[in-house]
């Protein structure tokens, strides 16, 4: 049985993974705090670990002991032989996630820990989605594929399976557009992310309208 931090237990389960699904909430929702009050929000983290049996369990146990809900997890080989990169999305406050990073660095096989949330970074996910598709509806869905730059992986008399990669917003929008056709199955990878050495902040550019309608940058 894990002991959950009382200061973190409120809010971390209410922050959804999809856009606009509880993007953040106040730590003390009963009282409107002053400007700058910490909020519970999604944090994108990147860890580099040694390829050692049981290292993933050590990492996830550290999250569980502190009461975190891991919303997304992806693991793969990194640029260095013998090391892997773990990408995670977890809800929490800035200070609590900073403390979590310190705890993760204490693990023997953890080499590097980064919270990418407050710095420019690029992130991508992959989704396979199967929906109903009659012969008459094929042209409509093909047009959607062109707009979202997705790929048709399989097609039958009554269904179509599509592959799409990109940002979380892009895939959420695409899934919403396919709802009227009846979505049958969805399979998604976790979010993978790397910091932007160029320093380009896509969130800032999107707010200023510089990116226009681009959904794949």
List the helices and strands and how they pair.
Layout: H1 6-9, E1 24-26, E2 39-50, H2 55-65, E3 72-77, E4 83-92, H3 94-105, E5 110-115, E6 121-132, H4 138-148, E7 151-155, E8 159-166, H5 168-178, E9 183-188, E10 192-195, H6 202-208
Antiparallel strand pairs: 1-2, 2-4, 2-5, 3-4, 6-8, 6-9, 6-10, 7-8
Kindly describe this structure.
With 217 residues, the chain is α+β, with helices and mostly antiparallel strands. The chain contains 6 helices and 10 strands. The relative contact order is 0.15.
Structural class designation: alpha+beta
Rg from C-alpha positions?
Answer: 20 Å
| Inertia-based shape | elongated
Q: Note the main sheet.
A: 5 strands, antiparallel
Distance between the termini: 43 Å
Spell out the helices and strands N to C: HEEHEEHEEHEEHEEH
Number of helices: 6
